Amino acid sequence: MKKSTKVLSAILVGLAILPVLSDTLLAQSDDEFQAARDRMVAWQLKGRDITDDRVLSAMARVPRHRFVPEFLAPLAYEDHPLPIGSEQTISQPYIVALMTQWAGVKAGDKVLEVGTGSGYQAAILAELTDKVYTIELRPELAQAADGRLKALGYGRVKVKCGDGYQGWPEEAPFAAILVTAAASQVPPALTAQLMEGGRLIIPLGPPGGFQTMALFRKINGKLKEENRLPVSFVPLVEPR
User: Less Cβ crowding at N or C end of the chain, within 10 Å?
Assistant: First the structure.
């Protein structure tokens, strides 16, 4: 059985026995999850090409199991995406770490995330800077993420329910912009809101298949591509 099939089977089983798992997970200590988080950092991140110590430390601190449905908590530190409801997913840990590393966020940088989802990427960014802004189109996800971030001590993260394709012009410019949904092209508003020398990370390509996660830097007002990686993300809702 392939690993993806095993994961799907585990999710379906979890849905069937959710009441039983909930009681068990509520009793499980954070220390047990910390051990899983440490293994994630050592094997999935350090074992590949995540070399930024600040990013590794952030990934080791943020409790990813708090950002997934409770019955999926045992799978939270495996290296694959997981469903979070509303037909959305939380990205695999490696991709979150890589996007964060590419963003090159420093203390005091103002950062924009497009596609809040569960709030996990925003929490990782909040470990690196106290100026994190995140936009989510779906009200139920935006509200849940805002409450979750506040409960976990990330109350400085600003969450907005709105059209991420238009960015957050009132708070621009941003030193880094991370888009966690795929688009056919870079939204012009995001290019305009990126500061000179800033970095923009976005998956580009058609929905429903593989895309290319691209890293751009803004030089003389234009985006210059610096890196790319094959990925698969849910689509960014674009204006009609």
Answer: C
Half-sphere exposure of 174 (CA within 13 A, CB side): 32
What is the DSSP pairing of strand 82-85 with strand 88-90?
antiparallel
Its CATH architecture, for the domain 88-231, is: 3-Layer(aba) Sandwich (3.40)
Task: Return d(Cα 168, Cα 113) in angstroms, integer.
Answer: 10
- Given a contact cutoff of 8 angstroms between Cβ atoms, the answer to whether 37 and 63 are in contact is yes
Whole-angstrom distance, CA of residue 174 vs CA of residue 168:
9
Residue boundaries of the structural domains of the chain: 3-82, 88-231
Q: Of 9, 57, 91, 184, which residue is the catalytic one?
A: 91
DSSP assignment letter at 80: S
Least confident range of 85-89, 94-98, 125-129, 141-145: 85-89
Given a contact cutoff of 8 angstroms between Cβ atoms, the answer to whether 185 and 238 are in contact is: no
Residue 204: beta bridge partners? Answer: 183, 212
- For residue range 131-148, what is the model confidence (pLDDT) as tens digits? 999 999 999 999 999 999
